[in-house]
Each structure stands twice: as C-alpha cells, then as structure tokens.
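Bit of a strange request maybe. I'm writing a small parser for structure token strings and I need a real example to test against, not something I typed by hand. Could someone generate the tokens for this chain?
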Amino acid sequence: MKRIVLAAVAAFAFAAGTNASLAADLGRRPMEMPVKAPPMYSAAYNWSGFYLGINGGGGWGDTSWTSVPGSFDVSGGLIGGTAGYNYQFGPTVVGIEGDIDWSNIRGSTTAGCALGCETKNTWLSTVRGRVGYAWDRFLPYVTGGVAFGNVEANTPGFAGASDTRVGWTAGGGVEYAITNNVSAKIEYLYVDLGDFNCGVACGGGLATDNVAFDSHIVRGGVNWKF
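Reply from user aminoacidic:
Good idea to test on real output. This should exercise your parser:
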C-alpha cells in the first residue's frame, strides 16, 4: 500500500511539473520579425498648368538696306515677360507660350552710307507652340511660331522710318523644374522680321529702300507655375 501511495505522489508531481512547463511555454510571446518601412516614393513631376515668367538675354544678326552694299551686323540685349500653358500626357509635353521684350538690338554702317545708316529693333514679341519630351523634371523642347517687332531705320539728318513687323521664329531649349512651382530655362530662337520700305526718308536717294532685319536670340528665364 505504501508503494502504491508513493507511486501516485510521484506521478502527480511529474504531471504538475509538465503542466507548469507547458504553461510557461504558452505564455512566452513568439519572436516578432522586424517590419521594414515601405520605400519612399517620389511621384514624377507633372508639367501641366499655366505659368508666368521673366526672361532676358542677348541677340545678334544681320540687317540690309537696298541703298547700302551688302549687309551689316546688329547686336544687343533684351529683357521682358513670359506667359504660357503646358499640357502633359505621358512623357510628351505640348504647350503655347507668348512673350514681349524690350530690345536694344542695333547696328550701323558707313559703308556706302557716309553719314551712317542704323537699324534698331526696339521691342520683340513672339507667340509660339512648344513640344517637349519630359524626363521627370528635365524638359528639352522645340518651339516655333509668329514673331512681332518694331524695326527702326535712320540716317542722321533724315527723317528715317519705323515699322511694326510680323515675321516668324523657330528654335529650341531646355527647362528644369527646380521646385514644384519654379522652373528655369535657356533657349535659342531665330527671328526673321522680313523687310519694309524706308524710301527717301532713309537718305539713300531711292524711292524704294527696303530694310531687312533678322536675329539669333539666346536668353534665359525663370517661370512660376500655378
């Protein structure tokens, strides 16, 4: 009988120890795997929207008079304002842009014009289409459209003449978005304002004295998109 009791006590002690061990194991929290933060994602820049800006630079080119042999050089600076709109679909960006600049592109010659013949562009404006291909914030583009400008021709001692000309322009450039609302650009434009008749007012003694003007423009600009 004594042996039976001792065996029962031993069995009970073993069962109690086993249950306690199982309870301890069940109460222990499983090891958690570290959770990685999701990668940061930056959305591609969207060029769509209206914008206003300023621009400035310089130009050089040629002018010719019927009464003057050959042509002579013109050069000078310009500065003004810009307005436009872009629309982006996929990587393609299309838009329209207009600008108007004060200009001091001018030149003179005494070859065949002893008193000095001068041609001067006093203001220049363009209205152009733009087509570009965007690499996120980097936008190279081509552009072309209509050019307007005032061209003056004069010879000291004579009345001279001026005319508001309508011509054409074409070129290209690159633009970079510095922030979501501010971008900077540099562009080249060829501008041809055709010619007009200055006549005897230019002092060449000809009833028809056509004055032609064209220029190459390089300018930078800053645009604010809204």
